[in-house]
Amino acid sequence: MNNCLFCRIVAGEIPSKKIYEDDEMLIFYDIKPMAPVHFLVIPKKHIDNLMELEKTDAALAGRLFFKAQETAKELGCEDGGGRFVVNAKKDGRQTVNHLHIHFLGGCKLGGFGAGIGWQLKNT
Ligand code: 5GP
Ligand code: ZN
Questions:
Q1: pTM as predicted
Q2: Pairwise CA distance, residues 38 & 8, whole Å
Q3: Rounded Cα gap, residues 83 and 101, in angstroms
Q4: Does residue 2 carry a pLDDT above 90?
Q5: Of 5, 21, 96, which is best to mutate to test ligand 1, by the most ligand atoms within 8 angstroms of its C-beta?
Q6: Would the CB of 97 count as within 6 Å of ligand 1?
Q7: Of all atoms in ligand 1, which is nearest to the CA of residue 28?
Q8: What is the spatial distance between Cα 19 and Cα 16, in angstroms, rounded to a whole number?
Q9: Which helix (H) or strand (E) holds 73?
Q10: pLDDT digits (tens, 9 = 90+) for 48-85
Q11: From residue 103, how far is each of 2, 55, 80, 81, 121 by CA, in Å?
Q12: Distance CA 96, CA 74 (A)
């Protein structure tokens, strides 16, 4: 039994607000949005995180990013842009261990350094 949260969303065991789906990926809204537009792009196949990406998954990763960009445009963020984020493993504070790209947009976001901390302590 797979206990991965996002695998369970892919399987339809946990509901999500889907934006796009095809054979290899799913795009859905984040349950706790941190911007007016905040969605997640995931491969249907389980990959733990970007550090575990295999060379054979490179084309898939490219398609995830391309579809993230298309979706951001479709949701009205072409002019303003936004932030594409991939957290990986513990130092990146990844909380769901299934590769995902966040897109945040729809408003002018806080500075990139705001949520990072290290620079504040070390400069
Ligand atoms: P991470 O911190 O791993 O980069 O991001 C995980 C994201 O998944 C968080 O932004 C969190 O709000 C979102 N999330 C966690 N559980 C669920 C869920 O059950 N449904 C949806 N749609 N998003 C979730
Ligand atoms: Zn998974």
A1: 0.95
A2: 20
A3: 10
A4: no
A5: 96
A6: no
A7: 22
A8: 9
A9: helix 58-74
A10: 999 999 999 999 999 999 999 999 999 999 999 999 99
A11: 26, 24, 13, 10, 28
A12: 26
